[in-house]
Structure formats: C-alpha cells, structure tokens
Amino acid sequence: MQSTVDGFSYGLVTPLVAFLMACLGGALGLRCTTRAMRMSRSWRPGWLALGSAAIGSGIWTMHFVAMTGFSIEGTPIRYDRAMTFASLAVAVVMVGVGIFIVGYRGASGTALFTGGTITGLGIASMHYLGMAGMSLDGRLEYDGLTVAASVVIAMAAASAALWAAGQVKGFLWSVGASLVMGLAVTGMHYTGMAALDVHVHGTAEPAVGESAAALLGPMMAGPLALLVLAGVVVIFDPLIVAGGTAAPPAEHKPGVPAHSPAHHRPARSRLRARGPVERRSRTPQRR
After folding, report:
1. Which end of the chain has fewer CB atoms < 10 Å from its terminal CB, N or C?
2. pLDDT at residue 1, as a whole number
3. Distance CA 115, CA 277 (A)
4. Where is the composition biased (Basic residues) (predicted)?
C-alpha cells in the first residue's frame, strides 16, 4: 500500500540547518577554489583538494541532516553503513573532478560547462546513492521527470556557483557563490524527495541496518571536523587576513625567453644606461 512520506518531521528546523551546512561547505570549498586560481601550479592541487573535500562534506552533511527529519508512516527507516560511506566518497570525488577542471582551465566556456556539469552530477549522485542506502519495509519509486528536474537544478546552480567563485572580485562574490551552492544542494535534495513515492509492504519485518540517530550522528563527526579544519585554513590564510590578492607567477614555456624588468624600459633609457657613444669623425685624416 502507498504510505505517507513526511520530510519535515521537525518543521523548518532540519531544512534550515541543512541549508546552512550546504552554504558552509560551499563557502569554504569555493573560497579554496578562488584561492587556488591565484596560486602557482605547485600549490594549486592542495587548495583544490581541500575545496573538494569541503564541498563534498557539506553536501553529504546537508543530505543526512535533512534526512533526520524524513519519516515514512508504517515503517521504520534504517541505513546501510557501507552505502552511506560510499555516498560521501562519490560526492568528494565527483565534485573534485569538476573543481579541478575549473581550477586549471578557468571558470568560463567549455571548462565551466564541463566542471559545473560534473559537480552537479556529483551532488545528484550523492543524493540518490544515499537514498539507495535506506532500508525499510517497502519499495521506493521515483517520478522520472522530477528526478531529471532535480539533476538539472544541481548542474545549473553548481555551474553558477563555480562561475561566481572564478570572478575573484572580493568577499561579496564569495558569499553569493556559497549561497548559490547552498541552493543547488538543498534545491536538488527536496526536488528529488518530491519525486519519491513509497509503497509499504506491511509485513512487519524489521528493516536491516542502523537507525539515523545511531549511524548518522557519529558519522557526521568526521565531515564536520573537516569543515572546521578547512575553515581554520581559510580564515588564517595570509592573503585573506591582509585583504590582498596575489596573481599567479608567470610560467615560463620552453623556447620562450624570460623577460627581465630591464627589457620593459624605454629605448631612450636603455641608451642612457650604456653611457656615451663614441662618435667617429667624417673628416679625412691628413697624411
């Protein structure tokens, strides 16, 4: 029989907390991405990896905070530990691929489209893999059009967030990008939940797995600690504290001579630096 699905068992508390967690992960991750674009290639992978972990952890934490307010009438909900861990890994890896593309290719054109698409697909994959880890006395069914809409929302909003992060125009752009990323994650989540129908079997068989309180509480400690670590690194970054910006150093290509500052001086200044030039007389010498 079809059962009643309630995604707001605690009212607006879980959606608001989930949105704040998504914004926090997005703010830290996108700030790390912005910072990476200002660095040389030797430092860039570290910042991009930290940003990927922050965004992936924020997405995962947001999802399961929202799921604590999710209930189904007539059956308890349990979660499979391995599948839950796998959803976190998928989020970090796929978001990382998208961020690395934008971090190295720039937040425009084909790179932005590809990076935003992969990042959005990572958000959607994390959501539906996490839903697949649920165990209950029933069957889950999804409306295909609504699922497709949720994936499009994730890809579009993730692309917009990466574009805003790539503008490197100050603190307000970072805040706007994090809000867009938060909307991408929460909008995708609740759109995907709207696509869900549950048919309860009514066999009264206990569901396999662990409850949300027993499993998700301890598991959230790791991602939350990672978010705190990323926040500390971002806050105490020298350029952010000083409010300055650092352009990435020029990368010398093989066969192209490096230009020193002396080459950029006017021709007249270079002549003066050489000193007086000996002039030859055109008058023929007498023998």
Report:
1. C
2. 62
3. 59
4. 261-273
